[in-house]
Every structure is written in structure tokens, then in C-alpha cells.
Design a protein that fits this description.
Helix content is about 0%, strand content about 60%. The protein contains no helices and 9 strands.
Length: about 150
């Protein structure tokens, strides 16, 4: 017998570019602790700005990798990339809790924008926790943002 599960309608989209035309990398080895219950907050320093030249359009592709650990008494923590003040796609990735024996795990995520017109775009990595008593730490992180002209 094979069990099947109905899945809610998944929205798949495809965007493409002609090639990588700019790369911005921001990184930090220092440990940062965040208590982020209820609101999205920027991870300190995990921000850069990318410009799309006049007369062009582009897609921004962001990759965030970090050693992270989450301590939670009753909640969980999610991380997302914000591009130009809007959540990139996919909108968030959960950070699982870690054991006290090996508190740090390496996590990585990618997110992208839709087609963007000419302008300057702030790209930030943000974290949010649900429930009180949830804290997350990041160290040895890297934010890479690539501009792909269309």
C-alpha cells in the first residue's frame, strides 16, 4: 500500500538573467546574538547595496551562509532576505534548534528578486523568532549578492 498526501497548491516561478554582472560579498566572523521575538530584525552587518544601471533590468540572487544556533523555550526562528524592503523568494527558512553538545550548525539559503528596474537596492538578511525566550546566534557568516542583467 502506498500512502499519498495532498499538498497545498505550490507556486513555482522561473526567472532568468543573461549573466552575472556584479557581485557584492559581505562577511563577518564575530558572533552575534539576537533576541528577535515577533518582528523581523536585520542581522547586524548582513547588508549590502546593489545598483541596477539606467536602462537595464536585473534579478538579484542572494546567498546567506552562517554557523548558527538557536535556543528556544517555546518558539522557533526563521531567516529571510529582504531586497529593496520586500521579502525575496523564498520568503523564509527555519533554523532548527541545536543540542547543547554541538550547539552550532552550518545553514545556507538562497533567495532571489523578481525583475527589478534601474535603481539602488538594499539587500539585508533578517531573523525573526516566535515565542518568548527564543535566541539565535550567528557567526562566520557570508552574504553574497549577484546581479544578473536581463
Amino acid at each position: 500500500m502506498i500512502a499519498t498526501t495532498a499538498v497545498a497548491s505550490l507556486s513555482t516561478s522561473t526567472v532568468s538573467g543573461k549573466g552575472i554582472t556584479q557581485v557584492r560579498i559581505t562577511r563577518n566572523a564575530a558572533e552575534v546574538q539576537m533576541l528577535t521575538a515577533g518582528t523581523w530584525q536585520n542581522i547586524p552587518g548582513a547588508t549590502t547595496t546593489v545598483s541596477v544601471p539606467a536602462g537595464a533590468s536585473a534579478i538579484l540572487l542572494a546567498r546567506f551562509t552562517a554557523d548558527s544556533r538557536r535556543v528556544s523555550f517555546d518558539g522557533e526562528c526563521a531567516v529571510r532576505v529582504s531586497i529593496g524592503g520586500s521579502p525575496a523568494v523564498p520568503q523564509a527558512t527555519l533554523i532548527p534548534g541545536t543540542s547543547s553538545a554541538d550547539p552550532y550548525e552550518v545553514h545556507s539559503m538562497e533567495a532571489s528578486s523578481d525583475s527589478l528596474p534601474a535603481g539602488k537596492y538594499k539587500v539585508s538578511v533578517q531573523a525573526q523568532a516566535s515565542g518568548s525566550g527564543t535566541a539565535v546566534w550567528f557567526r562566520n557568516w557570508s552574504l553574497s549578492v549577484m546581479r544578473l542583467n536581463q
